[in-house]
Amino acid sequence: MARISTLAADVSLSEPSLVEGFPGVGLVGKIAADHLVEEFEMVHYANVYCDGLPKVAVYAEDDAELRPPVRIYADADRDLLVLQSDVPIRPDAAVELADCLSGWFDELNVTPLYLSGIPREKDQGTVPSLYGLGIADGVDRISEVGIEVPHEMGLVSGPTGVLLNHAVESGRTAVGLVVESDPRFPDPEAARILIKQGIEPLTGLDVPVDDLVDRAEQIRQAKERLAKRMEEAGEESTQARPIGMYQ
């Protein structure tokens, strides 16, 4: 059974935004989520437990403390939450997770921002395009900040697709951000676009990304092994893809 175990009950939040960072194409969501946690030195707010999640414990560099693979971080001053995952998540586990999160979202009046990459081969120096999707009031939020909508029919799969599907079924306000991403390698540049053109205008935050750009190669190398696992994971990999009008 899924549950969220709160560690920092003293953290006070008011209608926070939650940035989801499941691994997927280009690892764009994970890179963006990890950057927010590190840049804002966010508090380890809660652990996420679910029968379908891998039963593993993870540890960080130069840190002896073991943690579960899926965690939530908080920044009370910025009314920001980040859902961080260090492992691929199967869609069936995401179904249970979505059910668990829905009540928690209602309790805290959370607006989730779901992140995904759409595979695109890009020429060097080309700026990735970002597209916005929404459910309920999320559609208005996308329009209000001027985020472009997709130019073709498509779908979002993997655990992020499950969470978006759950929002569609329940009519819960949510936003989806889709960015063109390298399908083979970690893509810090696409993650930067997610932050500057998507997360910033939607949350009103100013997120420094100089470190993300300067350390792009280092980040790419650090995430390479996980990217390979995501490529092999198939349906566990969060991604958006065009489907065309006729199939």
Automatic annotation (TrEMBL):
- KW Zinc-finger (keyword) present: no
Q: Which domain of life is it from?
A: Archaea
Q: Where is this region: Disordered?
A: 227-247
Q: Which UniProt keywords apply?
A: Proteasome
- UniProt GO cellular component terms: proteasome complex
Which Pfam families does the record cross-reference, listed alphabetically?
Answer: PAC2
- Return the InterPro entries for the record: Proteasome_assmbl_chaperone_2 (IPR019151), PSMG2_sf (IPR038389)
Task: Identify this protein by name.
Answer: Proteasome assembly chaperone family protein
